[in-house]
């Protein structure tokens, strides 16, 4: 059994960035990182563009101009202006090559087919030059750039519809247990509704990991071994819940050993989530989480979250940890460090009732976990304590 600190550092040191490439349509690329530089296929803007509503001028010494037409955004015609001539123009419209400045409409007085400007204006004033943002062939966004809504908007404005990105991991969720039935089915005596798969699936979805499959197996050794072998071969990350302890019908650990999965660590000195397994086989990472739902979710946020961020080559890979003032009391039994379900708000944290590892009702109200070190036996009101902020 190892400490929490060692377990976290071991996960960090054993996970490498995935760095597999995938082609994504631009509208489905949000949250990914570019795996290649993206060069611009066009100049942006692709023409000299008016920065505002006003008048495009062919400058001369006088403040008076003859008005010869109008250009709206999207118009394709390009009138030829002589010195002393102007056209009405609108924001985003193409400025004729023969115009050399745009005067904003607030500084122009119009009188029929002529205008008078308030003052002289400099060359190219209020004109966005061709390729001001990026020129054709230049790098628009560099390899490794995260595709935020703004980045997607920018690339779309260049006419780009597909991008090469670092692939997100393919993930298999496995739940085990003869006692589990699907929600919606009759609940007969001795059975419980299976919730871990839906819980962890939505935890993954909330983090924008969508390549996830769910596999449910009964407490049968051969079935467990065969399913684990298949998902380990087919996925980058395998997360199993239940069956990792040492009971007569806990077959996950035995199957992993027979499949020659490297055990990096098994059991962490913590509560909840002591029977946590972390291992590897070739390029696949395997976590076996406790079957109790609250313990499984706590281990997901403390350990699996780090593995996912490391696979995606993120700079920040742990959930935020802050100090907050306790508005609750708590008495800890035993010497194991503990993660407590809690509600954090504006520098204060409330420790909730119902900390049992099987209880999800309290977790459903939580937005944080309070970390209680092993050498701390109690928490009092106004104590400054460590809080892990959950991504919810």
TrEMBL record:
Main enzyme class: transferase
Superkingdom of this entry's organism?
A: Bacteria
What does the record give as the reaction this protein catalyses?
Answer: adenylyl-molybdopterin + molybdate = Mo-molybdopterin + AMP + H(+)
What UniProt keywords apply to this chain's record, in alphabetical order?
Magnesium, Membrane, Metal-binding, Molybdenum, Molybdenum cofactor biosynthesis, Transferase, Transmembrane, Transmembrane helix
**Which coenzyme or cofactor does it need?**
Mg(2+)
Q: Where are the bilayer-spanning segments?
A: 285-308
Q: Which SMART domains match?
A: MoCF_biosynth
The chain positions of domain MoaB/Mog read 172-310
The record's section on Pfam families has:
MoCF_biosynth, MoeA_C, MoeA_N
Question: What does the UniProt function comment say about this protein?
Answer: Catalyzes the insertion of molybdate into adenylated molybdopterin with the concomitant release of AMP.
Protein name per UniProt: Molybdopterin molybdenumtransferase
Species of origin reads: Flavivirga spongiicola
């Amino acid at each position: 059994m190892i400490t929490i600190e060692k377990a976290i550092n071991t996960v960090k040191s054993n996970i490498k960035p995935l760095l597999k490439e995938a082609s994504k349509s631009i509208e489905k690329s949000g949250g990914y990182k570019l795996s290649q530089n993206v060069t611009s296929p066009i100049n942006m803007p692709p023409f000299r563009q008016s920065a505002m509503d006003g008048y495009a001028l062919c400058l001369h010494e006088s403040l008076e101009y003859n008005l010869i037409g109008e250009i709206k955004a999207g118009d394709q015609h390009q009138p030829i202006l002589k010195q002393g001539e102007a056209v009405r123009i609108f924001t985003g419209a193409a400025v004729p090559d023969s115009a050399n400045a745009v005067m904003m409409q607030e500084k122009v007085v119009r009188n029929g087919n002529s205008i008078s400007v308030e003052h002289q204006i400099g060359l190219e004033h209020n004109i966005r030059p061709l390729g001001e943002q990026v020129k054709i062939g230049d790098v628009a966004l560099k390899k490794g750039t995260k595709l935020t809504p703004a980045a997607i908007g920018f690339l779309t404005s260049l006419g780009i519809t597909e991008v090469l990105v670092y692939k997100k991991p393919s993930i298999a969720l496995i739940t085990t247990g003869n006692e589990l039935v699907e929600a919606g089915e009759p609940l007969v005596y001795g059975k419980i509704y299976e919730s871990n798969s839906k819980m962890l699936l939505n935890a993954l979805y909330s983090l924008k990991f969508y390549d996830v499959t769910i596999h449910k197996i009964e407490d049968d050794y051969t079935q467990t071994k065969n399913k684990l072998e298949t998902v380990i071969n087919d996925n980058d990350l395998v997360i199993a819940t239940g069956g990792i302890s040492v009971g007569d019908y806990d077959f996950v650990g035995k199957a992993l050993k027979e499949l020659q999965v490297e055990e990096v660590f098994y059991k962490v000195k913590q509560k909840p989530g002591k029977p946590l397994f972390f291992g590897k086989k070739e390029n696949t990472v395997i976590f076996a989480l406790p079957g109790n739902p609250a313990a499984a979710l706590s281990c997901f946020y403390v350990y699996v979250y780090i593995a996912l961020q490391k696979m995606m080559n993120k700079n920040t890979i742990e959930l935020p940890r802050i100090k907050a003032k306790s508005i609750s009391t708590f008495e800890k039994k035993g010497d194991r460090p503990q993660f407590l379900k809690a509600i954090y708000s504006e520098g204060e944290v409330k420790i909730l009732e119902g900390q049992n590892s099987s209880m999800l009702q309290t977790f459903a109200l939580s937005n944080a976990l309070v970390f209680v070190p092993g050498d701390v036996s109690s928490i009092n009101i106004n104590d400054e304590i460590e809080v892990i902020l959950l991504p919810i």
